[in-house]
Design goal:
The chain is mainly α and about 280 residues long. The protein contains 12 helices and no strands.
Length: about 280
């Protein structure tokens, strides 16, 4: 029970820092960027959440498998191989995602987003940067799932909290000092999130049990968990349909300014779920 209490406290602390940082920074973003540009931020969050269906249930699968391996010390090598295998799969999926978004950027900017006062060329470049940012963030859920499975939730939330302040506070500082431009915002997010994901990867690999050889790619363990992964993938699809469909439709219907206000409202509403995620984890 003491371990459970520590994990819950760590998760609540990490979620609180993240939610507080978002609530503080969001109105500053609107002030510095304008509500039209903040609509692009809202569109990115919708795109990011919707593409999570391509995770295919691999992150919760790693969570489950590492929880099992953690009490079977003779399987230290197998656990490291499993992480390496999913890591390679995630990197390939991230590459496919960024290529697809970059190719679709002109269509998204011209035919989907009602860009209003923002020049269409700027919207196109912003969509390309969104694709890069999605790819950079793509393995994050994998590393977080691994740390949850190892019950390293304190370490995970320390990194998460520092990253939230660094990403949000750094974006405000960059926009304030250099350029209140949406492209500047996304460039900073790409750089900050690259550092975040790299740090999370290093933490996970240092917490895995040592083994006699280096981890290697091995597809065989994935076949053993295919049914569980498929079930989690179906759950993810249902979750995206229930939580993101309104934003997907409204991103097509509404001008960016109105969608920006809607996204701001969604951010505030989601902060009320502060205690759900920590307890679930």
């Amino acid at each position: 029970m003491s371990k459970l209490k520590v994990n819950i406290a760590a998760n609540i602390g990490g979620a609180s820092v993240g939610a507080f940082t978002q609530l503080v920074c969001a109105p500053i973003y609107v002030r510095l960027l304008g509500i039209d540009a903040y609509g692009l931020v809202g569109f990115f969050l919708t795109l990011q959440a919707s593409l999570r269906v391509l995770d295919l249930g691999l992150a919760p699968t790693l969570n489950r498998q590492l929880a099992r391996y953690s009490v079977q010390m003779e399987k230290a090598q197998e656990s490291r191989d499993f992480v390496r295998t999913l890591e390679v799969v995630y990197l390939l999926m991230g590459l496919i995602v960024v290529i697809a978004i970059c190719l679709a950027a002109p269509v998204i900017a011209d035919r989907w987003i009602k860009h209003g006062a923002i020049p269409v060329w700027e919207v196109r470049r912003a969509v390309v940067l969104m694709g890069v940012l999605v790819a950079v963030q793509w393995p994050l859920s994998l590393y977080q799932g691994g740390l949850l499975g190892l019950q390293r939730q304190v370490e995970m939330n320390v990194v998460r909290s520092v990253a939230a302040v660094f990403n949000g506070g750094g974006a405000v500082l960059v926009l304030w000092c250099f350029s209140g431009n949406i492209l500047t915002f996304f460039v900073w997010q790409v750089l900050a999130n690259f550092a975040y994901v790299l740090t999370m990867a290093i933490v996970l690999w240092t917490k895995l049990p040592p083994a006699s050889r280096r981890a290697r790619f091995d597809i065989r363990p994935l076949r053993e968990v295919a049914s569980f992964t498929g079930g989690m993938s179906g759950t993810a699809v249902a979750g995206v349909a229930l939580t993101q469909m309104d934003k997907i439709i409204l991103s097509k219907i509404l001008p960016l300014a109105l969608f920006g206000y809607y996204s701001l409202g969604v951010l505030i509403a989601n902060s009320l779920q502060l205690f759900i995620g920590p307890l679930f984890n």
